[in-house]
Prior knowledge:
The protein is mainly alpha-helical. Helices cover 76% and strands 0% of the residues.
Amino acid sequence: MTSSDSNAPYRRLDQVAWALSAVVLALVGLMRRVKIASPIDFGFLPPVHATLNAVTAAVLVGALVAIKRRNVDLHRRLILTALGSSTLFLLSYVAYHFTTRETLYGDADHDGVLSAIERAAVSGSRPVYLVLLLTHVVLAAAVLPFVLLTFNRAHTKQFAKHRAMAKWVFPLWLYVALTGPICYAMLRPFYP
C-alpha cells in the first residue's frame, strides 16, 4: 500500500466534512428566503435551541476538563455528546427557520417591522444584540467544517494534528455555543 493509498480514508472523511458543511451553509442561506407551510407550529423551538446550545457549551467544558486530566474515554464520550447536541440544534434550527417568520429584536408589536418608536426603545441594546448575533452566526458557519475536521483527526488517530487544531477550534465552538443562549435570552421578549 502506498502512502497516498493509506491516506485515502482520511481524505474521504475530510471530503465528507466539507460536503456536510456546504450542505448546512446552503440550507442556512435558503431558510431566510424560503418558507415552507407546515401544519406544525414550530414556535416552541427557540428555547430548545438555547438549551441545546447551553448543553453543548457545558459538555465542551467537561470535555476540556476530561482531556486535561488525561481521561481520553470521557473526553471522547463528551465530544460525541457535544456533536450530538449540536446536530439536534442544527436540525431543529433549520426546521424552525424554514417554517417560521423571523423575529426581529425590538419588534414589540410582532408585526415584522421596527417602527421608529420600537427602534428607539432598544437603541442601547440592539447594537449589542446584533454584534453578538452576527459573530455567533459567522463563527458558527466558519467553525463547522473545522469541528468536523478536528474530530476526524482524533478519529483517525492523528492526535498531534487533532491537538493543534483543537487549540483554536475549541474556543470558537465554545463561543458559538455560549452566545446562542445569550442571543435567545435577549430576543425572548420579542417572540410572538
